[in-house]
Amino acid sequence: MQSEDEAEDEDQEGDDASDNEDVDEFPEIDAVSDSEEESEEEDTDDLDEEDTLDENSDADSDLHIFPKFRKVVSDITGQTKVVYPEIEPDYDSDSSTEDDPNRVGKIPMHWYDDLPHLGYDINGKRVLRPAKGDELDRFLQTVEDPNSWTTAFDQNTQMDKPLSAEELDIIRRLQAGENPDAEYDPYEPTIEWFTGKGKEEVMPLSSAPEPKRRWLPSKWEKQKIMKIVRAIRQGRIVGSKPTAADKKQQFYAIWNEPPSNQAPPLPAPKPKLPTNSESYNPPEEYLPTEEERKLWESTDPEDRERDYLPHKYPALRLVPAYDRFIKQRFNRQLDLYLAPRIQRVKLNVDPNSLLPKLPSPNSLRPFPNYKSLQFMHTKARVRCLSISSDGAWVASGDESGVISLWEVNVGREVKRWSLGSKVGAIEWCPRLDVCFFVAGTEEQLHFFIPPNISPAMLTMTQSTLAPATLPPATQSSIKWISASGAAEDGPVLTIELPSASGLSRQLTWHRKGDYLASVSSSETQGSVWMHQISRRHSQAPFKKIKGAVQMVLFHPTKPHFFVATQRYVRLYNLAEQKLLKTLMPGIKWISSMDVHPSGDHIIVGGYDRKLCWFDLELSEKPYKVLRYHSRAIRSLHFHPTYPLFASSSDDGSIQIFHARVYSDLMTDPLIVPLKILRGHDVQEGLGVLQIKWVIKQPWLVSAGADGSVSLWCS
Amino acid sequence: MVTSSSSEAPSHPVIFTTQTPYVLPSQKFRIPLDWKRYQLLQLINNALDLPKPVPFDFLVHGEIIRTSLLEWRAEKGVGESRILASSSHDLTGRPTRISLSSEIPTASTVASLHLHTSPLSSISTDVSGSHLLPSSWDGLVGVWDTSIPDYHQVNLERDDDRKKRRKTAPTNIKRKAPIAVLKSHTARVSKALFAAGELAKGKAYSCGFDSTVRTWDVESGVCINTINVPERPMLDIAETPDGNVLLTASTDRTVSIFDLRISSLSSSTGVMMHPATPSCIATSENGKHQVVTGSYDGVARLWDLRSTKGAVTSFKVWDRMKVLAVDWVGDVVGIGGEGGMEVWRIAGES
């Protein structure tokens, strides 16, 4: 073949160098297409035809259009390998360098159908359309040319070109159904790559993840890594320490914990088992009668006793499909969904059990519960009252200046004194061997001796009020004046408080009956005075006191003194002359106060309706705040012997409480509301102004703004 | 038999009553005191105008007249005047002679009883009128006889006191000392009275604010028995005429009944509830079971001891005024209180 090519090269040296290849391969086609060179190339065509025929007739092994290869034994592997000859990079070696006369490229050639030329060559000259003979010429040519059946129309050149021997060989192989590659050997010997001695692969494949060493970081990833590495080196990143607990195996004693006392979750409710009537063939007695059927059909589905009608089928195979399947499944799901799965412990609290357990008032008798009698002051409202220390007499004073002395049990007035100004406070002397009382009016305190006392007591009283030996009188703004003449009808002794001190709001005796403290209503500093009867001496215990003093009280056992100002209650030690405690009741305006006979508890009432119980041992804040009155509290009083106290208010009611104080410090005082006593009228917004307990009996005496003084008996 | 109620020196008004079927004249006769049974028989037989004179016997105060009325009166020492004992807030009790001899009764205090240091709450006498039993707020019950002493048995403590007392009391009032003091009450004694009935002779009962009813042996002055009723201060005590039942009024609006026939009585055997404080009790002389109580609401109530649930009847004496004392003699009930004194007749009692 090479020899033939060389021969042809020699023949066509005069042709264009560009057409060299075409000429080299298909010299005949050129000649045929070109009508001018037709004659010249006739013979060469024949020659080529022969060559090709020869080639076709050759054996397959001989005919090689691809470069020849040779098999050599590799030095490295020791195997045979196919070695192809080196490709020489000349024009012949690559088809891309083949010259096509028409350089229009791969365009649809029918664009040039109407044109005389086919396209353009590399120099821009037109490639003229080759002459196309008519049908007769074509027929003649096919008849004449014996190679015409091996030609094919070439679009690019718009003419028939004879097929090369390789192309014909490929066509033949395709026609024969063979592999078009002539080199392909279907019967090649198998090459044992992995079988045989020394060729076995020992676990050649692995599903292990890609090892990290194969990872090649990018530049940025490298920078990021270096940043972390530097941080670790400088100690900015510290890895978590492995704890000892992690290393040790941990065991849990599963029986150590007490079993849960919670009930296990309830099992789902079971569906009802089918009954006889649900059978496909129920006995006759289960079948509904006509009326029952009608009744069942006429009732609403919710009202039906059962959601099916028994039906009888002669055989199981005649039972139709279950028409209510979906409905029944849905209902079952609904049941499961709505069925409570946990036992909910209902908080069944009896509201009565939340109330504090207080003993019944009936078990706490006696306490006053009815109005036994009423004593009337006809002219004005009764501000104050006091009960004698033997519990037999009541002295009550009203705003018109009348003091009535009357007997507790009958309510008979024994004596009446008329003072000029209104009476603000009355207090009996607590001593049992003397019998007199003090009434406080505007800027004056009057001492009265009741009639009908035994001669011994009268003598004692008179000597007490007029002591024979007096210490030398000191300069004081308080004057003590003894009435000399008509002692029977007037006060036996009068103390004149400093002028402009106003109405005596409160009087209180020390338990020994020698000291008397008085509180005047003036807002000035000197509103509290302490009077000593035996020395006829008065002094102001406080030079300066914050706030307007509302009430004062002596401690029943200790030398302590309670002073209630508008907001606070202060406890002073009179012996050491210092402040012991300040109680903060949280009341806007304190109206009244009383101390328990034990001295450890006080109650404080306010105009803002609150009643505070203080345990002096406990705190400066109230132990209990009672707010039972609907109007301002006016008066409070502890019973001296019974465990009772009472509060009176501007709402016209008196409330009785049981107040038991235990000697055991750990037990809280028991306060039980017992009774509300109503019977006083509210006049001009004022109700019950003062209450006092009868000393030895559970009886209460109350003075009202309606001018009545009532005795409440048990 | 015929009884006359009382007599007089020259002539005395007399009313004749009888339990025989004879219908006696109901008017008051003035009879001369020197009359004897014979004159009285003549008077009655003339008045009755019977065909045959009936030999009546005459009783005065339960005694048959054997002498003239004047002699009878002198023998008994009563009749011309009565002695009334009173207790007072001025710490004394006073027997007062009330003379009914003239048309205008006159009263004069004959003695004063000095013991107590507190006002007296009540005074009572025994059946014969020979002993007085005042009770006081100081917890003491004194026993006095009714004889009028010739001299002061008690000295006054101080001169100035005597001076003062002289102004009010005349000097002829003799101060009397008690013959016994019953001392056991711890609080004021409201009432003390002598026991009625033959069996309980020489006994006395008292009640007080210490909620006790005490039985006393007056002779020895010793408390024999104490009935303690907790938390029931008592205001009054009364006894039925047969001496079987004691009644006490207390401030918790109850009248307690104590049946003395029950041995070892420790509490009340019944109560009569009142709407207000009962202040006084009176038992009837002839009916055994009727009781009148007066209370502070001005209502007097008639009770039957056999049924204590409610009052048999009640009569409002005054409105908003207290009844402080009741007494019941025969078919009349006297009621005293803040409204004054009223006498009611109880008719139709069984």
Architecture overview:
Chain B: This is NLE domain-containing protein. Chain B: Keywords: Nucleus, Repeat, WD repeat. Chain B: It is found in: Nucleus, Nucleolus. Chain A is of the alpha+beta class and 714 residues long. Among the domains of chain A are: 175 residues, no CATH class; 115 residues, no CATH class. Chain A is built from 12 helices and 35 strands. In chain A, strands 12-13-14-16-15 form a 5-stranded antiparallel β-sheet, with no helix packed on it. In chain A, strands 7-35-34-33 form a 4-stranded antiparallel β-sheet, with no helix packed on it. A 4-stranded antiparallel β-sheet of chain A has the order 8-9-10-11, with no helix packed on it. In chain A, helix 3 packs antiparallel against helix 4. Chain A is elongated and about 190 Å long. Chain B has 350 residues and is mostly beta strands. Chain B has 2 domains: 66 residues; 208 residues, Methylamine Dehydrogenase, Chain H (7 Propeller). Chain B has 3 helices and 30 strands. Chain B starts with a strand and ends in a 5-residue tail after the last strand. The N terminus of chain B is likely disordered. The interface between A and B is medium-sized, with 25 and 27 residues.
